[in-house]
Amino acid sequence: MKFYHVLLVTAVTFLSSADNVQSAIDSGQVQVSTEHTSLSRHPTTNDNIRSLRTVEADDDGTSEERGLEFVSKIGSYFKNNYNVSKWAAKGKSEDYVKEKLGMTGLQGERLKSHPKYKYFESFVIQEEAHRLNRWLAQNVTPYDAWLKLGFARADDLAAIKDTNDFRIYKRYVTEFDNRALHNFVAAGIPVPVSSGASNIEMIARATVLGIDKRSKFYAKMALGLDKLTEAEMVGHSNFVYYKYYLGVFEDAGKNKRTKAT
Q: What is the pTM (predicted TM-score) of this model?
């Protein structure tokens, strides 16, 4: 027990700097205790002493190997997690991270079966969160996010709605609306309205408003219709998207009631 306690203390001491763990092990800086306390009350002969020393030596060697392997695994685990968090915060590309993790060129099942895939997966999740937070901090509009995600030439929502980039778009729009609604309620800040957005992006925008079941009041603000009279709103170019929002909103409500029954 003392042996593994020493190893654990040693590991925790070095984890404050993940890069030092492996180098410390390789250079022999990690010290482990090999002291034993005899509990035998029986007289021992010279042969017994020699035999006991042999067993102790063998046990010490095996325990030390297991201990160093244990510390090495801990060091590798924390070092990889530290690195992927650092790369995610810096906005490194997936190809960059694959290269660093020894996964260059891997795709599909070959990628998922790699021993370090869990670190790559962690990077992807963290990088996405950092990216969306940066966009929010920079007041990136939904249409700007649409362009950043490579949808400038998109003209068919059905063709992209199941892609990972569209999932990210929906996630960002939801967070954008959450913040915009909070700012409006808390400080009266007007809800930003994208200008010059493409027809397909406006349909996507209205779709997310409906899926998220935003209120009609908020949907009108998001589409720039909130200050118009009924007649003015019907004649506005964005009214078609408001009707699209209503359709999705109603469908979402029907689906929810159907699941409930």
A: 0.71
